[in-house]
């Protein structure tokens, strides 16, 4: 088709944008032609019915300067060639194709009237005009629109909007061929979108109305109740959504035009996890074999996938949670650990390297370094440290803002990792969200903000994510000054002063050198069943007096729990004390870690072996020498 433009390249071009609307001699197409013309487009009306098409075009502009009719049967490629050539000769550009032409089944594929036909009396060849018009016509139109839009005089590119149907999502046995054709149109739009956008600056999207009064079938208003039909104004607003995309970045979308609302339809979830995710991924050697060049997509597989152990990238690998993950995953069959650290020369990093762990330097403040560090990994364990920023002099909210931004940089880097199969984010419940702002716990609230933003901003990452809730570290009683029991002078007793009611229970995560890794290992083993789920990294919920009693039993030191106030503890310990006091208040008001069947996956479902998990008692016994 190299000669398509040869006859018209010397013609002057119009300054107005140009649109082709197929199937516009009546119904939806004629509405769209009228609407586009009112928006200032030069419009090409096309269809098989000449008299009706001429009437539509003349109504728009009797002079023919800004509207013309071209007779076209979209199921014929040559007929569409004539359409596009005629439009280019007239206006010298093409900005929008509305691939609207369509019809329902032209005959019955059930052959119900032939139940008693003799065996040798075979059914006639089915009339597949519906497939030819609805699907092949769209493919032909996309092919030709791409060719002409490449040659637009000022800037290549344009928009293709396809009229689909909700029957392409929810099949109706009355119209089996139509349902199949419209479902195929949806997949055509999704499959074509990345390449057209990347290589041609062309977007392609699909509007899916429900029932709407058109000549396609008689008596719509009899077959549907008014509230079950798509309003014309709502349908048109769906096309406007893409026409108004000035940056031309919205692509591959299927948009339901319901009665009076527009509903985006995203991709189906990955029900089989990595297996399903791999199915959609472009393998560039095959792409080049079929299409003559590589895809140019950043997420494409450039070469055969590597075989051997899978890689888990562990952020915060020298910290409490990350260290626990490394300790278990370095022994997990089929896995290799890549430890991320800011300082690859630190003593902790050198110790990991000596154990054969791959060390990669990356900063939570440098998204590019994270992208590089995640290259080729199959899983990521992500954790951030709010307390680090607080102890460096930041306020509670400033620390949270930094943590949230770091959390999103990690998430975005992971989302861009083409080999990623599972993302595991260490997070916490949010008092702010649960109590509508009446109680704030910044070190929990900002972390939970990352959960919400992953779901809204990175939905594809959310589909392969598991969210781990961590609670109280028993190690705090040995290493964290605010929670260490201290000896009361003169009576040989040890007191633990905490701003919490003695009957308030708290999630106890147990031995942090082990338990985080157990949960991560089992989440990965569970695979897709853990996607989108939360899990408590704990088997216990204890009160502080209960914990102190066990501490006393193990250490032989008499411990006494003393309740204090938030104000007193804040005066004693400053912002750190205030922050923990707010968390403990959260625990008094509710059970922040309460599980529900819908959002949570249980230890049993993860295959957690209770005998392997080290709880509070076991942790304190292991730290006995520290007290």
From TrEMBL:
Residues 310-580 form the NmrA-like domain. Keywords: NADP. Gene3D superfamilies: NAD(P)-binding Rossmann-like Domain (3.40.50.720), UDP-galactose 4-epimerase, domain 1 (3.90.25.10). PROSITE patterns: ADH_SHORT (PS00061). It holds the Pfam family NmrA. The keyword Ribonucleoprotein does not apply. The keyword Lipid biosynthesis does not apply. One of its GO terms (cellular component) is nucleus. InterPro entries: NAD(P)-bd_dom_sf, NmrA-like, NmrA-like_oxidored, Sc_DH/Rdtase_CS, SDR_fam. Belongs to the NmrA-type oxidoreductase family. This is NAD(P)-binding protein.
């Amino acid at each position: 088709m190299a000669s398509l433009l040869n006859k018209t390249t010397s013609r002057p071009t119009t300054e107005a944008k140009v649109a082709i609307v197929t199937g516009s001699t009546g119904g939806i197409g004629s509405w769209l032609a009228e609407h586009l013309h009112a928006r200032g487009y030069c419009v090409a009306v096309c269809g098989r019915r000449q008299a009706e098409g001429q009437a539509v075009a003349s109504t728009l502009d009797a002079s023919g300067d800004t509207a013309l009719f071209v007779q076209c049967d979209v199921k014929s490629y040559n007929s569409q060639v004539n359409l596009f050539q005629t439009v280019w000769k007239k206006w010298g550009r093409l900005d929008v194709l509305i691939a609207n032409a369509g019809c329902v089944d032209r005959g019955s594929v059930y052959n119900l009237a032939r139940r008693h036909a003799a065996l040798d009396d075979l059914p006639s060849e089915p009339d597949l005009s519906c497939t030819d018009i609805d699907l092949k016509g769209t493919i032909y139109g996309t092919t030709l629109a791409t060719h002409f839009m490449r040659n637009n005089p000022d800037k290549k590119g344009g928009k293709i909007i396809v009229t689909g149907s909700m029957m392409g999502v929810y099949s109706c046995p009355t119209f089996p061929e139509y349902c199949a054709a419209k479902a195929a149109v949806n997949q055509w739009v999704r499959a074509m979108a990345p390449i057209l956008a990347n290589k041609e600056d062309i977007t392609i999207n699909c509007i899916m109305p429900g029932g709407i009064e058109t000549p396609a079938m008689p008596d719509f208003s009899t077959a549907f109740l008014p509230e079950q039909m798509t309003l014309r104004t709502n349908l048109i607003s769906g096309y406007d959504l893409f026409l108004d995309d000035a940056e031309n970045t919205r692509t591959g979308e299927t948009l339901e035009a319901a009665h009076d609302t527009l509903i985006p339809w995203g991709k189906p979830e990955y029900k089989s996890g990595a297996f399903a995710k791999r199915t959609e991924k472009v393998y560039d050697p095959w792409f080049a074999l079929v299409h003559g060049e590589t895809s140019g997509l950043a997420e494409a597989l450039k070469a055969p996938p590597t075989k051997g152990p899978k890689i888990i990238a562990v952020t915060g690998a020298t910290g409490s949670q990350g260290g626990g993950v490394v300790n278990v995953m370095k022994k997990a069959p089929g896995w290799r650990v890549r430890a991320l650290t800011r300082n690859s020369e630190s003593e902790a990093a050198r110790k990991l390297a000596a154990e054969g762990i791959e060390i990669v330097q990356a900063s939570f403040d440098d998204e590019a370094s994270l992208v590089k560090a995640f290259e080729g990994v199959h899983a990521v364990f992500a954790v951030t440290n709010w307390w680090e920023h607080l102890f460096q002099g930041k306020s509670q909210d400033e620390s949270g803002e930094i943590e949230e931004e770091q959390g999103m940089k990690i998430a975005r880097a992971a989302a861009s990792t083409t080999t990623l199969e599972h993302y595991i984010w260490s997070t916490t419940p949010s008092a702010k969200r649960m109590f509508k702002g009446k109680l704030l716990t910044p070190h929990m609230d900002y972390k939970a903000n990352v959960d919400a933003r992953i779901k809204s901003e990175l939905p594809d990452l959310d589909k392969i994510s598991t969210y781990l809730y961590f609670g109280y570290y028993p190690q705090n009683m040995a290493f964290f000054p605010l929670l260490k029991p201290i000896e009361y002078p003169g009576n040989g007793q040890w007191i633990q002063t905490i701003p919490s009611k003695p009957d308030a229970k708290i999630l106890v995560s147990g031995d942090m050198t082990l338990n985080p890794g157990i949960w991560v290992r089992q989440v990965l083993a569970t695979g897709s069943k853990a996607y989108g789920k939360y899990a408590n990294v704990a088997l216990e919920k204890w009160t502080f007096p209960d914990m102190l009693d066990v501490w006393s039993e193990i250490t032989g030191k008499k411990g006494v729990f003393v309740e204090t106030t938030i104000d007193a503890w804040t005066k004693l310990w400053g912002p750190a004390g205030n922050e923990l006091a707010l968390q403990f208040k959260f625990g008094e008001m509710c059970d922040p870690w309460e599980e529900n069947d819908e959002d949570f996956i249980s230890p049993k479902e993860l295959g957690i072996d209770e005998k392997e998990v080290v709880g509070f008692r076991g942790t304190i016994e292991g730290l006995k020498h520290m007290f």
